[in-house]
Amino acid sequence: MTPAILDLLQRELVPPDGEASISHRVLVLTVPPAEVLRIARRMASEFRFDLFLDVTAIDWPHRTPRFDVVYHFYSTVHMIRVRLKTRVPEADPTVDSLVSLYGAAHFMERECHDMYGIVFRGNPDLRPILLYEGFVGHPLRKDYRKDQEQPLVPYRT
Amino acid sequence: MTRPELDTRVDTPLPNPVRPAFERGARDESVVVNIGPSHPATHGTIQVIAALDGEKVERVDVHCGYLHRGFEKECEDHTWHNLIPYVDRLNYCSGLINDFAYCEAVETLLGVEITPRCRYLRTLLSEYSRIADHLTCVAASLMELGAMTAFLYLVMIRDYIYEHLADLTGARVTYTYGRIGGLARDLPVGWLKRLAEILDQYEVFVARIHGLMDRNRIFIDRTRDVGVISTADAINWGFTGPILRSTGAPRDLRKDTPYLAYGELDFDVPVGIKGDNYDRYYVRMREMDESVYMIRQLMDMLPEGPLNVDDRRCTLPEKRLVYTEIESLINHFKLIMDGPDVPAGEVYTAHEAPNGELGFYLVSTGGGTPYKFHVRSPSFVHMGGVQRLLEGYQLADIIPTFGSVNMIGGECDR
To answer: Could you tell me how far CA A17 lies from the centroid of its own chain?
Structure first.
């Protein structure tokens, strides 16, 4: 662990209306959705967070705003991980895409769009990836029933 | 019950599950071909739509998801213990590493520290699984190039390992051997002796593979300078594991963020030079040698002592006590029916799986089931960048390149 870089990140990156904490050895930054691209760009260019690990969402159906979008970054220079979280409302679940910074964001944003319906503004290709064309709904949302079936070809009986 | 009339007309359009990114190639002469999802070289189910200029691949569009089974959705509906058999089936070539990474994530949330014997044994078994996984990958990609003898040699050793792991865990492939706070059972008598024998056999047969393949003209022609990627590109596209290391970057979570007992072990991180198929083959071969070296160290380091932590929140009580005292009976009942009470919080735990960084992102709101379960699977991320390895090479190069990426459908599609 290099605490110096973590302090620096907390000081530099968190906007006035954001939060920062350390949870299980990962620095967690919570920022407004409009800030995601700016902060990710600074992390990639100034702080050498070169590996885009993951993006996913968490659905809190009884909370407003409803979704957390969660990013994980790793720095192959500092060997630390940072989790970036932002909250988006159900009515407009939109965040800026990170495809301009990381190629890996293409596929992972597609998956998150599939599963939660989060719209990544600027990702040119949000076709279904684990699901198929014509699938209705977003299966990892809490209001999608687990036993709901949408077979593409009718079952043989 | 009446059977509905099956529509047998030939002209009935069946719905296409995918929408290709392109209908035609860059030039009028370009041909668009479809490879997979059911094709012997697609390692399960993946579909590659390729625009060809003659034999040269201009552009590819990779579709995964044919093995999607709602893994993450299903996980939100079961207790933490019940998920262990599910995570086994992510990368089914090295199920133990999935088990241990998942268990460590839950243990981090619980604040449980595993016993020394468990820690060393998990490290040993992780490396043993890595050998089995790399053997599978190398064997399959060599066989696809026609090297049947090499395939049989490697798969023979892999089968020794599978049988040996079956002695320990009771299953050949899907082990369900990890437990939250420990392991399912301790080593049987004589297990380490047989392990030493298998490692010796491994060295004999892998030496034969080196003799058969390393300077083999056909093999070199098919793999050298094919599927080349640079370090910067590999990192940008999220590649980890042997693919990243084949480009010359010594990035390995076992060294960079040591977990389990890796901080105490002596081992090297093999890297390639060019990041082509040959380097990926060689990095995997050398990594297996390092794993053998680590296992031999761990066999001497393995301490005696308890295997499971003594923590009633996650460890099942002894069967003898369940049948004789009420506290243990209730404890067992609550752990099975309600699941371990994991405190609220979120955790991201990553292990160096044979294919790259395998991360588990778990969110708990307290209670016996996860609120959110997400897997950062290396194969899925690699499929997002695999077009960089395929475009610009020959159609026939798709097969060795795809083999060297070692896409595992179970963890890619979840």
So the answer is: 19
Strand partners of residue B52: B31, B57
* Torsion sign over Cα B297, B302, B308, B310: negative
- How distant is the Cα of B210 from the closest Cα of chain A, in angstroms? 32
Domains and CATH numbers, chain A: 3-121 (3.30.460.80)
pTM of the model: 0.89
Tell if the CB–CB gap between A127 and B249 is shorter than 8 Å. Answer: no
Residue A125 phi/psi, 5-degree rounding, is -140, 90
Beta-carbon separation of A107 and B65 below 8 A: no
> At a CB cut-off of 8 Å and minimum separation 6, what does A33 contact?
A69, A86, A87, A88, A94, A95, A96
Neighbours of B317 (CB within 10 A): 16
Domains of chain B: 71-413 (1.10.645.10)
Q: Nearest-CA distance from B127 to chain A in Å?
A: 22
Note the pLDDT tens digit of each residue in B115-174.
999 999 999 999 999 999 999 999 988 988 888 899 999 999 999 999 999 999 988 888
Nearest CB to B73: which of A104, A146, A153? A146
As for the ipTM of the complex, it is: 0.90
The minimum CA-CA distance between A16 and chain B, rounded to whole Å, is 24
Q: Where are the beta strands (DSSP E) in A17-151?
A: 19-23, 26-30, 51-59, 67-74, 81-88, 94-96, 119-121
CA–CA separation, A76 and A49 (whole Å) = 7
| Chain-chain contact of A54 with B72 (C-beta, under 8 angstroms) | no
3-state SS assignment for residue B366: coil
Of B21, B240, B361, the CB nearest to A125: B21
CB contact under 8 A, A132 and B414: no
Cβ-Cβ contacts under 8 Å, A103 against chain B: 233, 236-238, 384-385, 388
Instruction: Say whether pLDDT at B2 is over 60.
Output: no
